[in-house]
Amino acid sequence: PRGEGAPGTAAPAPRCWYRGALREPGTRWMEPGCRSCACQGGRVLCEAVSCPVPCSHPLPAPAGGCCPSCTGEPRQPPALRPNTGPPLTLLWFAGCLHEGVARAEGDVFSPSDGNCTVCVCLAGNVSCISPECPLGSCPSASPLDCCSCQPAKCSFRGRTYMHGARFSLDEDDCTTCVCRGGEVECSFAPCPALDCPQHQRHLRPGQCCFTCRDPPRPSGCFVDDNGVEFPVGQIWSPGDPCELCICQADGSVSCKRTDCVETCPYPIHIPGQCCPDCSAGCTYMGQIFYNNETFPSLLDPCLSCICLVR
Question: In a 10 Å sphere around its CB, with 0-12 CB exposed, 13-18 middle and 19+ buried, how is residue 16 labelled?
Answer without folding.
Answer: buried
